[in-house]
Amino acid sequence: MVVVSLVLVLWSLPGSLLDATLGGMLPPIVGAWCLIASLASLRVYELRRQERLAAHLARAAAAVAIGVLGAALTRLVVGGPTAWSSIPTWALSCGVAVLALHTLWWLLVRRWRSQGWLTPNVVIVGATALAEQLVRETLEHRDMHVLGIFDDRLKRAPRDKLGVPVLGTTEDLLNHRVISAVDLIVVAVDPAATARVREITSRLAVLPNPVTLVFDRPGSTDRAAAITRLADSPLAELRHVEPERRAFAKRVQDLLLAVPILLVLIPVLALIALAVRLDSAGPVFFRQSRHGFNNEEIVVWKFRTMRQEAADAKAERQVTANDDRVTAVGRVLRKTSLDELPQLLNVLSGEMSLVGPRPHAMGMMTGDVQSEKLIAEYAHRHRIKPGMTGWAAIHGSRGPMHTPAEVIQRVELDIEYIDHHSFWLDLWIMLLTVPSVLGDRSSVR
Questions:
Q1: Which residues are 366's β-sheet partners?
Q2: Three-state SS letters, 114-155
Q3: 302 three-state secondary structure
Q4: Which domain holds residue 380?
Q5: Using an 8 Å Cβ cutoff, are 99 and 57 in contact?
Q6: Long-range CB contacts (< 8 A, 24+ apart) of 415-424?
Q7: Of 83, 263, 372, 441, most Cβ neighbours within 10 A?
Q8: Does the residue 443 lie in any domain?
Q9: CA-wise closest residue to 202 among 181, 223, 174, 224
């Protein structure tokens, strides 16, 4: 996109003192838009494992051709000072730039994959003959890492498959330490056993990881490609996860907004830090382990609002009205949510987003029960980065949750956001955050 923008600017410059009118600018603008849209639609940004360089460049060249066609048709329709002779020049410069960059990226990614950097981590559910075949071809092709196998029938399951250990049952997988490093869960059981497949996928539904059913298609031998989710693989996706393009767009959105916000708020952050330090002994910041994307553990930054000796890193005791642990400055910060501002650092590091489900403390308790155990679909909220604010926050669901009903309401709002989130919804949530927080007199924080 950067290359396209540069070429657009160069083409639009008055090389022959052309007027910078709408007629002169419109053809290159349409051409650039068509090129960018075609690169995305033809999935040129996807560097497939088994695709040869020539085939990849052919798709890139097709995208360039569509961009040139869009510019030429616009020139034909609107006319204007854009010279016909400049279109071949633009086509050549775009083509060379796009093909050169994609050749470079293809070579780099191929090298990284050969070194194991971009190899997905997989666990297999079902210690079956098909699982053994997948492991065997994985060892041969090195296209993935199988971290372990899980099977509910442990009495009949072997201790390992070609060196890959059987780590336990499906229930063990739900709480296994390996789950945060897993890119894909492969269910390798006979799909004809519908009851068993339904039972397994129902159990796995509480995990944030993508789940795939692999089956033995007649004549299919390319299992390694299947595990890496190629289009021609014998896979059936059992659950939708966050598309890469939406995740990338959200990351760009976070950076474009968080950097200027942080720069503007530096004086405010400095004053708050000074007030916290003068109010009570202890560090300015409070760091807490919380659930992040894909249920991974992240360390979230906040301004300290409690007395240092009473800090509760695991949220085992949630805040109540007139909580004696909260300092005088802390009450103001918590009421206005200013204590959350240091989380802009988490946004910049990529651990959080400006808008998303709020990250909950690891092992947070609601009464005598861990919050994540109160409802089966809790992990849905971990399929997207946690946010500084969110759909639940502007609907009054903020701060501690003291009853199971409050947990369920929070997660229902989070799932509703995950299902419908967009740039405009994020913008709307950010605009409503300040009046929602300042106008809420009932929430205890």
A1: 369
A2: HCCCCCCEEEEECCCHHHHHHHHHHHHHCCCEEEEEECCCCC
A3: strand
A4: 244-438
A5: yes
A6: 415/377, 415/380, 415/381, 416/391, 417/356, 417/357, 417/390, 417/391, 417/392, 418/357, 418/380, 418/381, 418/383, 418/384, 421/250, 421/355, 421/356, 421/384, 423/249, 423/253
A7: 372
A8: no
A9: 174
Domain boundary among the residues 90, 114, 138 is at: 114
Query: Could you give the count of Cα atoms lying within 13 Å of 355 in the half-sphere of its Cβ?
Result: 27
Can you read off the two tokens belonging to residue 326?
Answer: 């909260």
In a domain, 133, yes or no: yes
List alpha helices for 211-243, DSSP H: 223-227
268 with 408, same domain: the answer is yes
Cα 211 to its chain centre, rounded Å, is: 16
Residue 271 pairs in a beta bridge with none
Whole-number Å distance between alpha carbons of 91 and 281 = 65
pLDDT tens digit sequence for 320-365: 667 778 888 888 888 888 889 999 999 999 889 999 888 776 666 5
What is the percentage of the chain residues whose pLDDT exceeds 70?
A: 74
Mean pLDDT over 141-151 rounds to 82
Domain boundary among the residues 114, 135, 168 is at: 114
The pLDDT value recorded for residue 220 is: 47
pTM (2 decimals)?
0.59
Picking from 24-28, 67-71, 173-177, 187-191, which range would have the lowest pLDDT averaged per residue?
A: 24-28
> What is the per-residue pLDDT across 275-328, written as a single tens digit (0 to 9) for each?
999 988 889 998 888 877 766 788 899 999 888 877 766 666 666 667 778 888
pLDDT category, 75, cuts 50, 70, 90?
confident
The token pair at 401 is: 């949750």
| Identity at 355, one-letter amino acid code | V
**What is the per-residue burial (b if ≥16 Cβ within 10 Å, else e) of 284-322?**
eebebebbbbbbeebebbbbbbbbeeeeeeebeebbeee
DSSP states of 196-213 as a string?
HHHHHHHHHTTSSS-EEE
Total domain count, the chain: 3
Q: Could you give the 3-state DSSP secondary structure of residue 183?
A: coil
Angle between the N-to-C axes of helices 423-438 and 244-279, in degrees from 0 to 180, rounded to the nearest 10: 20
Q: Strand, coil or helix: what is 161?
A: strand
Do 424 and 350 have their domain in common?
A: yes
